[in-house]
Amino acid sequence: MLDFPTELSPPAPIPRARALGPVSLLRVLADNPLEAWTTAHFEQPIVISGLSIGRVAVVSEPAAIRRVLFDNCENYQKDWLQRRVLSAGLIGGLLTAEGQNWRTQRRALAPLFARKAVMNFSTAMLDAANGLAERLAQREDEVVDVAVEATRVTLEVLERTIFSDGLGRAPEDIRLAMKGYFETIGRIDPFDMLGVPDFVPRPGRRKLRPMLRVFESAVDSIISTRRERIAADPDGAPRDILTFLLNAADPETGEALSEAEIRANILTFIAAGHETTANCISWSLFLLSQSGEWRERVQAEVDREFGGAPDGLADRIVETRAVIDEANRLYPPITAISRVALGRDELAGEPIKPGTMIVIAPYVLHRHRALWEKPDNFDPNRFLGDARETIDRFAYLPFGVGPRICIGATFALQEASIIIGTIMRHFTLELVPGFTPWPVQKVTLRPKSGLPMIVRRR
Ligand code: HEM
Fold this sequence. Notes:
458 residues, 19 helices, 3-stranded antiparallel β-sheet, CATH 1.10.630.10, alpha+beta, 12 strands, binds protoporphyrin IX containing FE, 5-stranded mixed β-sheet
């Protein structure tokens, strides 16, 4: 086992001394954008360059980030590239909505992701985690791709929390369509990077539409069955995300979600919530496999705290949570948040012209030389006790910040804590000797060739 002490740093591309030329840059961006960052990005508060898609400013100064995502956020809109990449099928949901429509949806959906509501999902999360533990128990001393298992369990959590009474008539067909769909949207299309207009057919997109149709029509039929159930017995309907969406309304205007918005938000929660959380779980388990000290600390904690009531469990396992926070720092599942400037502004002392693309890259920010001590080292102590209070609110952004902060952050952290806790309680996962996972950005930041680990029962 590699077993690195906290002084050693887990695998990551070494920043380039100089920026790539335009052709190589496109190739690297299509292949693995993490390998394009330069030393300047990790050292300077702002780096501005002219690319084929226009002027791009990479901003890493906390005060400037606060201005873009919080104080002056009206001046910065989600940009076309991000929306184009993410919006296949998600148009109309919270992630891609803008303006008044976004405000109405956000207000209507907020109670669903509030702390108390999320706590009610603890049992569903624990059931899915125990299902995973049972699967792993059957594979004792075998090699398992933990990245695949993590994706499976996070999809299961969403399935159990959105559709608690099941996927209806053909669950396997729906799961297959969903898998194909998310695998296809998970790839950044080089045409999108080049800014090729929408009317040019994208090879990947052709495969996407039929899969999306299967999935959408399945969701439609689940929605109509549920509507009938609610109409027949309003109090007897399952208390899950679907019932919530069907009853959701903006508390200020009383406006309900349209049928299309309900469907788009189901897709959005699955798209935004499953792979991100799966990556967070995979990287945390990898890091735990490399540090004997933290493995022991986490296992002692879960031995002590698991077994009681599931409510509040995630809040009790603080050392496990510190490992998750550190994994989200070193390998943030969403590596870059982007916006486009509508009007003039000034950021970190530099004038910003309208149309400039602003990139706030958690991957860069979380390893920035001016903001972190030993930025590339694994050390969950940063997130424990008083040390946590010293972290600038705008220097650690795995879930973004400001009005468009991830609505599912509490959900994701509770889920990751319960799943990792359950695994560590029963098993020790060892990285396959000689294998080093490599971080690659394909919309989310995942281990390039999966995460093969040997399952050892404790
Ligand atoms: C570790 C897991 C997750 C990470 C790292 C993550 C990260 C993010 C980030 C960085 C944003 C902000 C993007 C921006 O400002 O441009 C975001 C937004 C969002 N996330 Fe998450 N997310 C995670 C899990 C989830 C889950 C579990 C759900 C739902 C079940 C979810 C639903 C959303 C939605 C709907 C938005 C858009 C919010 C809005 O614009 O109002 N996310 N997420």
